[in-house]
Design brief:
By secondary structure, this protein is an all-alpha fold. It contains 8 helices and no strands. The radius of gyration is 17 Å and the shape is globular.
Amino acid sequence: MSIELLSAFVAFAFVSSITPGPNNLMLMASGANFGFRRSVPHMLGIGIGFTFMIVLVGVGLMTLFDLYPVSYTILKAGSVVYLLWLAWKIAHAAEPGTSAAGGTPMTFLQAAAFQWVNPKAWAMALTAISVYAPTRSMAAVLLVALIFGMVNLPSVSVWTVLGQKIRVILTNPTRLRSFNVTMALLLVATLFPVIFG
């Protein structure tokens, strides 16, 4: 990969990782509801899970979508349903310190598995492989995955810090509930390009 292409790829990885999407909105909500430290497994699950996803997309899953286009449609439909369920959970999250349902942060494995139903993650992975590793050689795929992983984790962590900073304002249960409902609605809004695009 030339230095120009590498620079373009790092910029793509940064912009696509730092902009709002399901992962970042859920991390902001997690930071607000549970704090930074309790959200670390969620952040690591995103970073490592997405990196692993890029590798698998590069070494074969793109071929599956090329051969069976309906499989991508099925994936999108499942993703929409799952994101709607997550939005409902965020909107109904328990107050910090309570043990009600929805009162725990996402685990490492849950966050890693979430990448497989996250429409933005799929778009990012498919674009990264198509544009920056078009040969789909193992070396190119691994380089793209490694760079994306190095850029993604710090980028998504910013959203958790933002959520943690907002937490000071959300000590009132009404404000926290309003914040969670807003985050849930924004998460639903991220589905519009998937449904109507």
